[in-house]
Recover the amino acids of this structure.
């Protein structure tokens, strides 16, 4: 099956947790072997196990020799959870498909580097644009140190922000 097929599934899993993971990114993972999905996962809430942990737990010992599809580079540092790279390496995964590189300086390229050093083949940039759009707020925060903000504004039916006399207290 086409790698994009499994990555699309991982992106849907990540999207399912939208609004729940802040300040962490949305991440989905799918473990596949011989065309069969062995495990799936999504990061559901900050401080809880990451998507890779859920997918590999579901796959169990069948993950040895399997492929893992992840929407964001696996973490390589200890925060509120252990590094996903350690779990991936110990699970026997043979290949990891990554949609986008994590811009977080604690990860940025290190997760992929650790996996490659352990002899795991890593293929990057599978549906990268979709994955980066999904985590636009997270990427913006990492890059600029400021939250991604959406403006809420009210206007009159004629497109104005206040009435003709400048009074705006009744618009919203």
């Amino acid at each position: 099956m086409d790698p994009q097929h499994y990555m699309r599934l991982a992106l849907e899993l990540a999207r399912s947790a939208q609004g729940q993971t802040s300040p962490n990114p949305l991440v989905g993972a799918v473990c596949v072997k011989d065309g069969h999905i062995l495990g799936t996962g999504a990061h559901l809430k900050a401080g809880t196990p990451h998507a890779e942990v859920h997918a590999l737990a579901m796959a169990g010992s069948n993950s040895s020799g399997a492929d893992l599809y992840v929407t964001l580079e696996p973490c390589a540092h200890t925060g509120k959870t252990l590094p996903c790279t350690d779990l991936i390496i110990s699970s026997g995964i043979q290949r990891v498909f990554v949609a986008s590189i994590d811009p977080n300086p604690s990860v940025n390229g290190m997760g992929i580097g650790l996996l490659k050093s352990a002899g795991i083949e890593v293929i990057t940039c599978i549906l990268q644009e979709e994955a980066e759009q999904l985590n636009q707020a997270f990427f913006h925060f990492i890059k600029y140190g400021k939250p991604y903000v959406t403006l809420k504004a009210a206007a009159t039916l004629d497109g104005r922000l206040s009435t003709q006399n400048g009074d705006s207290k009744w618009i919203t």
